[in-house]
Amino acid sequence: MEVTQVPPNFVGGSLEDPTYRIGKLEAANKKVVSVTPNEKISVAVTLMLASGFSQLPVMQGERDVKGVVSWESIGARLALGQSCDEVRECLSPAQIIGSDKSLFAAIELIAQHQYVLVQALDRKISGIVTSADLSRQFQQLTEPFLLLGEIEQHVRRLIDGKFTPQELECARDPVDTDREIETVADLSMGEYIRLLENPKYWEKLSIRIDRAAFVEQLQTIRRIRNDIMHFDPDPLGKEDLASLRSFVAFMQSLRELGVLN
């Protein structure tokens, strides 16, 4: 009997939503620290100083947002000599976005106001996402790609100029017969490995590091790369990210020692 394989992101009879929605962020699902409009401004200032916040939502319940009090709104009132004894006197309009909205739809709002309040489908405020949260999220999304790009460039520099086009051709994937291999830039990660696995070719690099250990590290990098490029629904694990960072540091040290061109 034929068995149908279920895709890893196939949940509850349908594919997982591939959109990066702001409601998926940790900060969008963390209890919000807020104040009421009748609080003394000194309470809001104390909370912001103690927690390192730049703003606080002003609320009369989980669904009723009156505005936001911030260092900017407080400073503007005081600079103009206006009263700012109670929170209600120092409000600015709140920036609210639905949890089902794309993360990218929130970028302009966060860039302009430094934050957005996230509103769940039941209309409750479920969290607050700041520019710092956004920066961390984009680091998580982009760092693996940047590290892989740097690794590939380092490996190319290691190989470049050491082999003839005919030798590079020997490393080509045997099932990919239509592609021409003329320079090192034409090789894939798997083909780098195939080239360097050959002891005769490894000797041409003239570096005193263990071939088997180096190739094993490249195999790990290749596996991580395949997971990322095939858009594995699970986020990159801490160990895999550490492997990428460590290999980049290793290749940078080789360059500093003059091993790379």
Polypeptide structure, described:
There is one protein chain. This protein has 9 helices and 8 strands. With 261 residues, it is of the alpha+beta class. It folds into 2 domains: 125 residues, CBS-domain (Roll), CATH 3.10.580.10; 118 residues, no CATH class. Strand 7 and strand 8 form a beta hairpin. Helix 8 packs across helix 9.
Give the number of DSSP strands: 8
The total number of structural domains is 2
The name of the CATH topology of the largest domain is CBS-domain
Mean pLDDT: 87
Proportion in β-strands: 5-15%
Task: Count the DSSP helices.
Answer: 9
Please give the share of residues in helix. Answer: 40-55%
- CATH homologous superfamily caption of the largest domain: CBS-domain
The coarse silhouette is elongated
Q: Examine the secondary-structure arrangement and name the CATH architecture of the largest domain.
A: Roll
Q: Unreliable stretches, pLDDT < 50, 5 or more residues?
A: 1-14
Strand order of the largest sheet: 3-4-5
Structural class: alpha+beta
Distance between the termini: 56 Å
Main β-sheet description: 3 strands, antiparallel
State the name of the first-level CATH class of the largest domain: Alpha Beta
Order of helices and strands: EEHEEHEEHEEHHHHHH
Radius of gyration from CA coordinates: 27 Å
